[in-house]
Amino acid sequence: MRADASTWAVNSLLGKRPGVLLPPHFVERHSVDDVVVSRLSAPGVSHVLTFAGLYAALYPGVRRPIRPSARLASKARGAGSAPETFTLPNRAERLVIPQPIIETMRAMMASPKTSLQVKLSPSYDLTVGATSLSVTAVDAMLFPLDDMD
After folding, report:
1. Among 20, 42, 45, 116, which is least packed, fewest CB within 10 Å?
2. Domain segments of the chain: what residues?
3. How far, in Å, CA of 141 to CA of 149, rounded?
């Protein structure tokens, strides 16, 4: 089992058409409530690690993937490079925002005391703070009680 077996990336935060550029066998897709999520499959992880040098040379602005052993070693040194995770209420799956995306979101904030609301799905909003992430369930009531006969 992979070290990140329970960590998923939220599709709506990955781009307009996430997963389109990857072969289907490289990506696992799943839904957590109504939030569509993805992660690399075992063959996808193997491919990325095998060709990391080639991708770094072709796309110099993109960061090299961190090998799991390097990630554990950096945690031992106290480095804060681990991705930030969050969960939906009453769910066990850990969800993650890719580091370049969260850095862009935080750069858009006017001051450290402000926060940014991001729609994850029709039922959930993500609040991105300077140092925190939180999820709130959106009120799913379709009709106000006053209109009921």
Report:
1. 20
2. 7-147
3. 16
